[in-house]
Structures are given as structure tokens and as C-alpha cells.
TrEMBL record:
Active site per database record: K355 (for fru-6p isomerization activity)
UniProt keyword Hydrolase, yes or no: no
Protein name in UniProt: Glutamine--fructose-6-phosphate aminotransferase [isomerizing]
Organism: Natronococcus pandeyae
Any GO molecular function: carbohydrate derivative binding
Record gene name: glmS
Reactions that this protein is recorded to catalyse: D-fructose 6-phosphate + L-glutamine = D-glucosamine 6-phosphate + L-glutamate
Top-level taxonomy: Archaea, Methanobacteriati, Methanobacteriota, Stenosarchaea group, Halobacteria
Amino acid sequence: GKGEYDHYMKKEIHEQPTSLAQAIEGRIDPENGRIALADFGPGTFADVSSVQFVACGTSYHAALYGSLSLNQAGVHSTALLANEYSVAAPPVDDETLVVAVTQSGETADTLSALRQARANGAYTVTVTNVVGSTAAREADDALFIRAGPEIGVAATKTFSSQAVMLTLLGQRIAADRRGKPPADLESLLPDLAAMPDEIERVLESSDAASIADRYRGSRSYFFIGRGLGYPVALEGALKFKEITYEHAEGFASGELKHGPLALVTSETPVFAVFTGDEDEKTLKNAEEAQTRGAPLIAVCPDDHPAVEIADAHLEIPDTSAALAGLLANVQLQLVSYHAANFLDRPIDKPRNLAKSVTVE
Ligand code: F6R
């Protein structure tokens, strides 16, 4: 049941310290600076020359997060919408790894892409929450995120666990290909181990409710981010539109000036996510929106330069750039939750949506 919580969504947002701890349990070894992903045999990914991630919706945002982080680790990768895969899939061969990211393991679009990739000779892995799901049975290998059941239609805790598992998988792929761990792994692992506590801090001290209240009744809500902040901006906007029924849009920060800035007014609050990926550029982009009257809500650590100019601040603890977006995402989940709650929306069952989409 929902226990002390009014909604499953809120319960599941608050479960993230636990669900993330479960995801990484036994899979990292910070003392020895190693990933211990026993889900795969030694050297499994040594021959992988490129990686394609396929997924839909929130899982696609996690996939994009994983793909960008893999590119940052020097491995060629792309994230593709599973529902576009059948019409324009990039070629695959036996050195291509195709990773199907699906919470339920039953999304028809994602299963089609997985089957197509497998039929064409790719090595396939699914990153899923459900043991025994179709994706887990059909992929060559499965990596389980161990988030526990997610009842709210809006995906929350499964997103953070997917993103973390994809980050780990990416580091493992990079290590297998090089025969040694990536250089930045040593600083990443302790930060990863600290994530459950950091998320707890965000949950305990968040100003999301007052910010959702302050910007209630706006015309549209924009979310911007760069690098790993970009998928987080997309996810912030998807969650917002899904449960509030208000218009929201996520953009790569640098894209604002290439068109969307025309929409910006004093009635379009801009949530800017700062993850340490060229933040000074994102800050300039955000200021351009603010100059046009948009309220600027900075999602960043307390000592960040964005705090000086922002109209409001959602604080996240300092951590690795590889993980900061996940703390920012928790703040944005809370903003959406509170905005929907003020509007009295049926948060756990938004209109027109189903938890598992089994048709193409
Ligand atoms: C949004 C949401 C959907 C799912 C999408 C894929 O909150 O839940 O966008 O992420 O339908 O579902 P799975 O991950 O089960 O393949």
C-alpha cells in the first residue's frame, strides 16, 4: 500500500535512497576502485565497437543519459527511440551491443527493436526492473535494476536506477575495451556509494513545494540542461506534462537561442539544470531567457554561480558530474508532484496513459 503517503508517486520518489542502494548493492567496490558487475562474465564487452540504446519515454531519457556518459568514456554510442528503430535503425554487426532499456520489460516498441537487432546479429542486453519479463527472456543478457514494484504510472525510482545502472554498465564496457578501468572511476565510485544519502538530503530539504506554488498558473514550463543535464531536462518536462496536464518542454540549453527563445516570456518559468558539463554556457543561455522576463529556477549546488542570478534555487549536494543530474532529477520530480497536487490531478493514474504500453 501507500502507507503514510498520499500517492504512490510520492512514496516511490521517497523510496529512491533504498532503491538505488539495492541497485548498486554488491556491484561496486569503492575501496578497491572497481566495478563488480558479476551479472556478466569477465571481458564480456571487450569486442564491442559501438553501442545502441533503444527505449521509449522515461526509459529513453535514461538511455540517453547512459549513451552520453558512454560517449564521455570514449565509447561510440547512440540512444534511439525504439518506436523509430524499425524505420531507420543504424546498421548493426556482431560487434554492436544493443541495450534495450525498459522498466516493465513488456513495452511493445522496445521489444520490436530488441528482436530486430538480435535478428540482425547484434549482441543484446536488456536493463529492466522485471525478472522473467519478455525483454529479460529474449535478450542475450539482462541487467536487473532491482527497484522494486513501481505502481505510479509516472516512472520515478526506476529512472534513477536505470541511469545509475547504465552509468555502471558504460564504465564496465569502457574498462573491458581498454583492459583497464577508466581514469575517473576512482572518484565516481565513492560518489555513487554516497548517492542514497545525497538523495535523502534532497528529499528532506527540498523547496520544490514552494517553488511549484510560486509559479502556479504559468503559461508553459521550460527545462534546460547540457550534457548529462539534457536528458534530465527532457525527463523533467515529460514528468511535468504527464501529471499536471500543463504544457512543458525540455531543451538542450544551447538550443534555446535556435528557436524556442521566441516562446519565452514572464509567464514561462525556466528550470535550468547544472551538472558540471560546461555550466558557464548553460548559465549564459539561462540568462538570455531571464532577460526576456522568464523566471529562472536554478537546480545546482549552493555555491554555484547560478544561485547569484536565479529567481529561485533548488539545491543539490556536490557530486561527480556523472551523477549530479540524478540529484537534480529528484528535485524536478518533486516540483512536478507538488504542481500536480496543487491542481488536484489524479497523480498516480494520469488520463490517457497506461503503466505498460503493449501495442505499437
Ligand atoms: C513516463 C513513463 C513512460 C515509460 C515508457 C516506457 O513516466 O512511465 O514514458 O517510461 O512507456 O516504459 P518501459 O520502461 O516499461 O519500457
